[in-house]
Design a protein that fits this description.
Length: about 250
């Protein structure tokens, strides 16, 4: 059995999925003051899968990493409390685009000699679904996206992917990139003793310059607007009235 030395799991700090997002009054972005922030749910699933791989004896260590401001260390500590061995914060105050994040992760992969990178298929704030694919392309290694099952054997990974037509099973050689879907697993509950132990685990801080990554801005946000208010529903007595209502709305 081939044992992976290091699994790298990127974690992104996002608005908690239970929070109702509000747009700033000037339309410049999302209001974050006083808002609960958490690990991106898809990344949390990725971390849980990496921990299960290590617990099966198929990997030696799990390293979590985040790219962002110093406050992102909160999410890294949460990842350490779940069971990750150590954490790396690539500190920057800039709002980075997926391509720059992918380049940063590639630098971390080479720095840590990671043989497997597991990350969420997308972040729930931007929903870009780009970073994992970009990382695989920059790294020149295979990828398995939207994984709902994952197994490792003899230097290869077998993933069951959720596609439009159903399920697809692919086998890829390691090193590789895997992005996770919701049905891959259910992340574990973090207990208080684990949270206390996490404070003593190593959390390293590096800069983009130390990784030889130059941030690039290809896009500019012109404005942010909340979704349109949905109109109230209409009660109908029978099928004929339903058809008439649909005709009035030019839907049939």
């Amino acid at each position: 059995m081939t044992i992976i030395s290091t699994i790298l799991v990127p974690l992104k700090r996002v608005v908690d999925f239970n929070v109702r997002v509000r747009v700033k009054s000037d339309g410049s972005g999302v209001a974050l003051d006083g808002v609960k922030m958490s690990i991106n749910p898809f990344d949390e699933i990725a971390l849980e899968e990496a921990l299960r791989i290590r617990e099966r004896g198929e990997a030696e260590e799990v390293v979590v990493a985040s790219v962002g401001a110093q406050i992102c260390s909160q999410q890294l500590r949460a990842g350490l409390a779940m069971g990750a061995d150590r954490a790396i914060l690539v500190e920057t105050d800039r709002d980075l685009e997926p391509l720059t994040v992918a380049r940063t992760l590639k630098a971390l992969v080479h720095r840590e000699n990671s043989e497997l990178v597991i990350l969420g298929k997308q972040a729930i704030d931007g929903d870009n679904n780009q970073t994992g694919q970009m990382l695989a392309a920059l790294w020149g290694r295979p990828q398995a996206t939207f994984a709902s099952e994952l197994s490792l054997r003899d230097g290869a990974a077998t993933a069951t992917r959720e596609v439009d037509a159903g399920l697809e099973v692919v086998e890829i050689d390691l090193p590789a990139v895997v992005t996770t879907d919701l049905r891959l697993n259910e992340p574990r509950y973090t207990k208080l003793p684990d949270i206390l132990k996490a404070k003593r685990k190593p959390l390293e801080t590096v800069t983009l310059a130390e990784l030889n990554v130059e941030p690039e801005e290809q896009f500019r946000v012109l404005g942010v607007e909340p979704p349109a208010v949905r109109p109230k529903g209409v009660m109908v007595r029978d099928v004929a009235e339903l058809v008439q209502a649909l005709r009035e709305k030019e839907l049939v």
